[in-house]
């Protein structure tokens, strides 16, 4: 089934979306062997480029928790239900088969030079930059992804798995990745592996890096970069929202080049229109400065119940902690930005089908401002990391942390695999930001 058919499938509320499988491993032979160690398209490379010293095929080490057979949540101990061996690439190399450069050594050549391309504020982009960016987004909605989606519950009948696979567009895959990490597939309950836990900043960091790489490959341009939207600065809040950028909002309805280019939404119940509300209430620099004053990355109970009496940088940034000491969650940092763009004034929440898609956590990447928003959140994370000079050791290791968010959990549903704690290091390790990410300096 081609990617053009995915929109019809994914908008069905009852759809099971199970796994993201690289094209090279989306076949019966690979699934039967449970080994996703493809050979890169390089002379005499061998599996994972081992003959060239690029990587090796290794067993996946997962934490000591059992797969929940009753719920069939294949995200638990990802990716062990599908693959027990994957490629592990050397420092300079990356990709499913180690045939690409790593995020840090993305020099467009032989992966020999560490390259940092600083992200910029979207306020620095020219009109031509915006036109090119909108064209990239529209192309990504039509260009086939390098991954397949499994649309049935996991089974060892591998022919059934293969027959169920569909190939989405690059952009729709981006939406689906966020959607499936946020929802328990195939059952009537939810276990969020991207939010409400210590993995929130690290999961979204990898999402932005991964999607940025997918667009780089689509464009054949290793210099392509996402830029951050500094919504803390009142003069920059409206910058993305014009007809020739990410769309102007007139009576909550988004209009402009993006929508006129047949922008399509998936995994979203309200397909009637693409909306954003008017008259939002914004977080302030005071909120952000308070966040930077919190030295603990996260504290018990490591979820949305971390309230005002504890000090948790993650909880404050995600929107569950408030410096005012009461009414937690009204207007701290991250989640309210989704609410602002999806719900408008938080004191007058519209009904579900009147909300903009950014108000729906799992399907929110349908609105492309999600990209610039989470690049901003990642910029904030980077400033916190630099201030306290922390790394993987700052990620909590408590057994109370829910699965999917534990330090050594592999981030769902990505292949190649990365542990949550591996993302809690300076962004210089991923070729992003450099010394130009200092949000507080613009206050």
Automatic annotation (TrEMBL):
InterPro entries: Di-copper_centre_dom_sf, Tyrosinase/Hemocyanin, Tyrosinase_Cu-bd
GO MF terms, alphabetically ordered: metal ion binding; oxidoreductase activity
PROSITE patterns hit by this protein: TYROSINASE_2 (PS00498)
Record's signal peptide: 1-19
Superkingdom: Eukaryota
Residue span, Tyrosinase copper-binding domain: 367-378
Keywords in alphabetical order: Copper, Metal-binding, Signal
PANTHER family assigned: TYROSINASE FAMILY MEMBER (PTHR11474), TYROSINASE-LIKE PROTEIN TYR-1-RELATED (PTHR11474:SF126)
Record protein name field: Tyrosinase
Lineage of producing organism: Eukaryota, Metazoa, Porifera, Demospongiae, Heteroscleromorpha
